[in-house]
Amino acid sequence: MDVTRRDMLGMASAAGMAVASEPLLAAAQTGVRGGLPAGPWAEVARRLTDFARADLADKGFPGMTIAFAGPGGVQASFGVGLADLARRKPVAPDQLFQIGSITKSLTVMALFVLADRGKLDLDARVQDLLPEHPLPPEPITLTHLIDHSSGLPNLLEDPAMVDLPGGRLWTGFTPGSRYSYCNLGYALLGSVIERVSGMSYPLALETLVLKPIGMKQAVPVFRTPDRARYAAGHIRLREDMPWFPRTPLTEARWFEFSHAAGSVAATGPDMIAYLRYLAGVAKGKGGPLFSDKLAERYRTPTIDSSPPGARYGNGLHTLDVDGRPCFRHTGGIHGFSSAFTLDRESGFGCYASVNVGGAGGYRPVEITEYALPLLRAVAANQPLPAVRTPQPRPAIKDGARIAGQYRSADGTAFTIVERGGALAIIANGRTAAIGAAGPDSFVTDHPALAPYTLALEEGGARIRLGGRLFGRGQAPAAQPPSARLAPLVADYYNPASWGGRPQVFAVGDRLFLGTAELVEASDGSWRFKEPAMAMERFWFTNRIDGRPQVLIMSGSRYGRFKDRNL
User: What sequence ranges are listed for the domain Beta-lactamase-related (predicted)?
Assistant: First the structure.
């Protein structure tokens, strides 16, 4: 599930890039299924396999599952690398991978089925459908939720279970006025599906969508009895440190999960069925789920999204890839990262998923894009395009602007140097990597520089690391937390939450959540200073001896874990 806004916040002050010390692909096997004929179609699979192997080796990932759908029923599903790093088991094409936020498009299909049967108006007000939920007074329609334009905060918890000082949710902008990715909206859509269908969300999705379009092995909920069917998910061994390529991995914890924003797991053949159905919708064909009239609505994006030039609608991004209009969605969840791209004109598509999550925003988009010109070339009986390899991680732009020696008032010092277009950071006689986390923030895995995220201030003349200021060439005066803010400064933690380990810092009378500055509102909550992130609100509550023991982040509850001086 793409927790995009929370990823952007840098709540845990850790982002970024891995270090499997041994080749992960030594025991890899590749199988192909789906009636793939010999000849040029096999060459497409070989090209994608080579690309996947190179991508896995570069990133330090265990395995990848790949599926593509081409013309005339041509299709293939195959695995590369390891499904289980500890047990050295290869990826099999019939294993389940969690597809994360790609689930959203399936959730919308279920809504369209109900609308086609006359049970639902897609333009209905959510407040009328879910009157018992603590929704804000501003009119919010199902379409606003579907297209991430509701203005609601982004959280993954059940909306009926969130902790809301004031008793109800809010909006950060006028519903329908702009796009802001919101998993909460899809939680509400899941509740609407249950209310209208009379079934649980998993049963409704399976009955209304998965089985009718041929996703026979897919599951709409993560359940322990199904665990043996899955590839093992992986995360970095040190979740408190940033992600860098080839960082040590460990198996992700298993959890049971049912959520309309991202609880589908599927095999490669399931995703071929998904791509085939979506190719029909791209041509205005809604069967077997809903009418062609609704298919026209489903395939039409409604609001500008990201990246620039893309538009969003009905759980899908529409954007140009190599000058051709495509559908795309990605998904990130605890232990898995997924993507698909489908050429709307040809109907050719490719899906891929790796069994690693939390990898600095990585999604296997490149391989899905590479598949499309290969499929088009073979279909047109033309030579295959040039071989592609995974693109290297982009270098930090204008690295020279932050190069230099930095000092803080407490005597800590580090040096940022540029070598061959890449940056490195030197402290205590040790050199470590440094990578971009945002336009003006950088991450490092240097053990002496916790919390690992550096934020530029004053155009690079100063760098903030947590609550410390470093000046280039000369140490700035220390700015300890003010008496008002000092009690708030701490690490907060909730082992059941998706929001990481929020870290709160203060520099004088300025408060920061990770690298993002907060400002206090008249209602006692805190908001991001950046207007584009106005949807989120934060409260510090349950004070003991003046120190808050709980941080409520847009409804998610985190307990005080450790103070900054520990």
Answer: 50-363
User: Is residue 26 scored above 50 in pLDDT?
Assistant: no
Q: Are residues 378 and 458 in the same domain?
A: no
Based on the domain organization, do 422 and 374 belong to the same domain?
no
Distance CA(261)–CA(191), nearest Å, equals 11
Domain final residue, candidates 392, 420, 452? 392
Residue at 231 is within a domain: yes
pLDDT in tens, 134-163: 999 999 999 999 999 999 999 877 777 788
Distance (Å, whole) CA 314 – CA 97: 23
Q: How many residues in total does the chain contain? A: 566
Is residue 372 situated within a structural domain? Answer: yes
Question: In angstroms, rounded to a whole number, what is the distance separating the alpha carbons of residues 243 and 358?
Answer: 8
Q: Which CATH number is 245's domain given? A: 3.40.710.10
Same domain, 156 and 297: yes
Residue 7's pLDDT is: 45
Look up the pTM and report it.
0.92
Residue 72 and residue 205 in one domain:
yes
CATH number at residue 405: 2.40.128.50
Domains in the chain: how many in total? 2
Label residue 436 by pLDDT band (50, 70, 90). confident
The most distant pair of C-alpha atoms in the chain lies apart, rounded to whole Å, by 75
CB 56, CB 63: distance < 8 Å: yes
- Cβ of 241: how many Cβ atoms within 10 Å? 21
- Tell me phi and psi for residue 100, to 5 degrees: 60, -130
Terminal Cα-to-Cα distance of the chain (whole angstroms): 33
Is residue 297 domain-shared with residue 428, that is, in the same domain? no
Reported as a single tens digit per residue, the pLDDT across 372-431 is 999 999 999 999 999 999 998 877 777 778 899 999 999 999 999 987 778 899 999 999
At 496-546, the pLDDT tens digits run 766 678 999 999 999 999 999 999 999 999 999 999 999 999 999 999 999
Query: Quick one: 385 and 440 in the same domain?
Result: no
Q: Do 65 and 134 belong together in one domain?
A: yes
Q: What Å distances lie between residue 182 and 29, 100, 187, 411, 431, CA to CA?
A: 38, 14, 9, 43, 39
Provide the CA 26 distance to its chain's centre, in angstroms: 29
Residue 5 lies in a domain: no
Residue that finishes a domain, picked among 472, 495, 527: 472
| pLDDT one-digit tens code per residue, 452-510 | 999 999 777 899 999 999 999 999 999 999 999 999 999 999 887 666 789 999 999 99
How many CB atoms neighbour CB 320 within 10 A? 10
The CA distance from 197 to 184, in Å, is 20
Give the DSSP per-residue string, 67-123: EEE-GGG-EEEEEEEEEETTTTEEP-TTSBEE-GGGHHHHHHHHHHHHHHTTS--TT
pLDDT confidence of residue 163: 87
Which residue range forms the structural domain that includes residue 459? 399-472
**Could you tell me if 181 and 82 lie in one domain?**
yes
Which residue type is seen at 89? Answer: K
- As to burial, measured by CB atoms within 10 angstroms (0-12 exposed, 13-18 middle, 19+ buried), residue 73 is exposed
Q: Return the amino acid letter for 23.
A: P
> What are the CA-CA distances from residue 394 to residues 10, 16, 330, 368, 403 (Å)?
19, 12, 20, 19, 17
